[in-house]
Hints:
The structure holds two protein chains of two kinds.
Chain A: E1 3-7, H1 13-24, E2 31-35, H2 40-63, E3 67-68, E4 71-72, H3 80-83, E5 84-85, E6 88-89, H4 93-100, E7 104-107, H5 113-121, E8 126-130, H6 137-140, E9 146-151, E10 159-160, H7 163-169, E11 175-180, E12 190-195, H8 205-229, E13 245-246, H9 251-274
Parallel strand pairs in A: 1-2, 1-8, 2-7, 8-9, 10-13
Antiparallel strand pairs in A: 3-4, 5-6, 9-11, 11-12
Chain B: H1 10-25, H2 27-30, H3 35-51, H4 66-79, E1 90-92, E2 96-97, H5 102-107, H6 109-119, H7 122-138, H8 158-175, H9 178-194, H10 216-229, H11 232-246, E3 265-266, H12 267-283, H13 287-307, E4 313-315, E5 319-320, E6 325-326, H14 327-344, H15 347-361, E7 379-380, E8 390-392, H16 393-419
Antiparallel strand pairs in B: 1-2, 1-8, 3-4, 4-5, 6-7
Amino acid sequence: MRIVILSSSLYSETACAMAVRMAQLGHVPAGVLALRTLDRATLLRKLGQWGLSGVANYTRAKLIPHHSGSQLQIRNSYLQPFLKNGSGAFRSMHEVAVFYAFPVSTCHNQNSAAAIARLKTWSPDVIIFAGGNILRQPLLDVPRLGVLNVHLALLPRIRGMSSPEWSLLKNVPVGITIHYMDAGLDTGPILGRYDLPENTQCASLSDLRDRLIAFGVEKIAEVITGLDQGTISAKPQSDLHRDNQFFVMHEWLQDRAEERLAKTRAANQVGALHG
Amino acid sequence: MIDSLGKVEGTNATIGQIAKALNEAAGLLRGPQRVVPLIQKLVSDKIRVTFEQKHLYSYTTTKRSSTETLNLLLRWIRDAQRPDGGIAAYYSLLSGYSESYPEVTGYIIPTLYDFARMTGERSAVTSAEAATRWLLSLQMPTGAFPGGLHGSAQQASVFNTGQILQGLVRAHAETNRPEILKAALAAGEWLVHMQQPDGSWSGPGAYQDASHTYYSMVAWALAELSEQAADHQFGIAAERHLDWVLSHFRASGWVDGINLRGHPNYLHFIAYVLQGVLECGILRKRTDAIEAVAKPAWILLRKFETHKFLSGAFEADFRSSGYFTCLTGNAQMSCVWLRLFEMTDDLRYLNAALKMNEMLKQMIPLRGRAGIAGGVSGSSPVWGRYQPLRYISWGAKFFADALLLEERLKASFEARMLTTLPCAS
């Protein structure tokens, strides 16, 4: 199985963890295509978005890896099993690529002709989307089987942005869906849907997201194995006629989702005490 | 609001508009103290437009509280109120305050009472009472109210009478004074008398003598009067107009029949159609009306969420046709989304309204002379096509409505969350 990974940056922990997990399974990536994060266009866009201090923090975070004392710190602690490298940890895709010997390229836009040409040279069976641009059809047509995405909610109920938060507020079980990407937003055929088992133990929304991401890395490895062995197949989504798209959640609603998470945790603890 | 000069057609209209623009520009000669604020606003909007960046995963936020913004808006409205109770239509960066505008003075009354209820601010009640007294003095013997700015040609106007009726109905609900009910009933009877057999209003009393779907706002006022006065004839008239407007909804969600010659379909008027149909539908328990509004409201929500911006004007089937945004229309859409959230429990409407209100808060000047501080400009940037270089009273009214509604619905949502069981794992 020839796998290519798309990443939002060379420093994406999720993309690095996916690359490591694939390599551990024996599917060393045929290549990784990452967005350049410190180019002029990105910095100008973020200047408008966040202001000067936000851009300064962003640049510092990109240039100086997180350290805690002498130990390199992994932001998402649930990815630690994948990112550990001896006494330290992989801190960029370049380090993972050197370790497992696969090529890494960068681009301004994953949909650009140059990016697509590069992807084609790697002849992927599957592309795993671990962040970047909204993908256009020419890119979606490159891999033999399709482009895989880990969506942080159970499709088809919750599509779009802030999906774990919306799952909480809509009282929908929290989980992930692995699906092929198509021209729509989270509308492609589904390969697997998985409830997050330790949902009720999450300390915060950020903790929930971190758990879901790590859960996604583990499950996408299972899906790749299933595709390789021909034991799983994709099923079209059932209610494509319904507009289940959600958008970035406003802070005030995020706070309510956080409250609901705390309530769920407390209810579960009471249940365990009486259980 | 449509400027009364817009009623002149063809070449006369162009000449009229040029004359009006020159007259407004000449305001700078009469009031040179306005030059500095004008330049400041033009420069700040130019800078903002130049550096404004939109991103799929972001929305604009501000630390300004709704209460602080509401206080600013209400101060703007009170500054625009004359001693006789009438409220100016706008503050022009060129010519200062306009004459009082009966239409807006009328439908700003519910906003003033809502503000007083939320904050306990007695001055808002005083303002509402002064506005009501002034309006009662303007009513024509037929029961109609005049269109245009105070002091212009006294011509009975269906739309303005409907908008003023909203204020009278609320003023009566708050005060129970019989003379207000009498005036409201007279206005309502005139509107019923002027209604066409097909349920529309056209001919004398209608803007440009033509029928318009945004007169759904008149239907809303009649539905309110029907409830307040317990008189079915007004409810029946309201539903007759509602049916007429609903027949103009396309399958795509677009609503035909805004029908303003010489003007684009500003978001303000599209939102009027939706607000009128929605509120009338809620009062008359017409689920077909609520469902009809949900479609265009959702299309506009998707546009706003995707582009972080709503165009100030649209062509048929919601093709954007403006480089500017109409802040009043944005505030009205926030009201529509909030009411749809209340009706459907779909949190995406609340989410969009919260973001829209955040965006609007940042457009309100914190400082400046009376007329500027706390004002809502017609367009953003301020030189956009809708009410250029003006802070408009109905913009302040609709944004205050949106914030008041937001506060009420947030409180009820939080209360409901306390009683809702969390999702089992």
